[in-house]
Design brief:
By secondary structure, the chain is of the alpha/beta class. The chain folds into 2 domains: 95 residues, Nucleotidyltransferase, domain 5, CATH 3.30.420.40; 143 residues, ATPase, nucleotide binding domain (Nucleotidyltransferase, domain 5, 2-Layer Sandwich), CATH 3.30.420. 43% of the residues lie in helices and 11% in strands. It has 8 helices and 7 strands; from the N terminus they run αββαβββααααβαβα. A hairpin with a 5-residue loop joins strand 4 and strand 5. Helix 2 crosses helix 8.
Length: 244
């Protein structure tokens, strides 16, 4: 970022080590803006392994970064639901984007992007097609299990029984939204509400979440929901740079 605007960003699949992911993502973002690492006044790392990034000036938790990033995009936001690849979080922020409260999922992956990756593979569809497939359902199935391993087995059984894939996909979206609801309720939802992370791109999950929570969920129309955490980190970096 520079002068309160985004110069560039990058999205990659994670590498085996956090420092590998960070370096590759940074190199791509820098190349897009014709900058080098020496041009960066302050770099904040966030997410898993944030303390291991050698070129970072400082580090901040992804919970604070997602709250700050979402609030910068839409200042009226007070509740952020971050659904990433490995975990999901509900975050309450104040009028300045500072975190007030948060709740996280347990060790089960059933409310995460990884869960959707497994379900898409089990159904034999691309991950980005899972949401639209669910929307075409006429009779969504009921997923009875809560553990991701047992859900996968349940989905495999439904597929072998010849159940419609769109109905199974709709059931998966509903089951995930139900799991997310138990986490979000812990922070007491306050509007406006937004979803960040890769799962924000699954329209079926988001639609089910709207219905269950009984609130509208705002969209980030011009900014990819997957970069919101990095955006928050850049905003914190700017503040720290100005303080010297």
């Amino acid at each position: 970022m520079e002068d309160n605007s985004i110069l560039s960003s990058s999205l990659i699949r994670v590498r085996p080590r956090p420092e590998q992911s960070a370096k590759e993502a940074m190199d791509i973002a820098l190349s897009k803006s014709d900058l080098s690492l020496e041009d960066i006044n302050h770099c904040v790392s966030t997410g898993y392994g944030r303390e291991m990034i050698p070129f970072a000036t400082s580090s901040i938790s992804e919970i604070s970064c997602h709250g700050r990033g979402a609030h910068w995009v839409v200042p009226s936001i007070r509740t952020v639901i971050d659904i990433g690849g490995q975990d999901c979080k509900a975050i309450r922020v104040d009028e300045r984007g500072n975190m007030l409260n948060f709740a996280m999922n347990d060790k089960c992956s059933a409310g995460t992007g990884r869960f959707l990756e497994i379900m898409a593979k089990t159904l034999g569809v691309d991950l980005d097609k899972l949401g639209p497939l669910a929307l075409s359902s006429k009779a969504p199935v009921a997923i009875t299990n809560v553990c991701s391993v047992f859900i996968q087995f349940e989905v495999m059984c439904m597929t072998s029984e010849g159940k419609n894939r769109s109905d199974i996909a709709a059931g998966i979206a509903r089951a995930m939204a139900d799991r997310l609801n138990t986490i979000v309720k812990k922070v007491s939802v306050k509007e406006d509400v937004a979803v960040t992370g890769g799962v924000a791109k699954n329209v079926a999950v988001v639609n089910n979440l709207k219905e269950i929570l009984g609130v509208e969920i705002l969209e980030f129309k011009k900014i990819d929901p997957q970069i919101i955490g990095a955006l928050g980190a850049a905003l914190f970096a700017n503040e720290r740079s100005q303080r010297g």
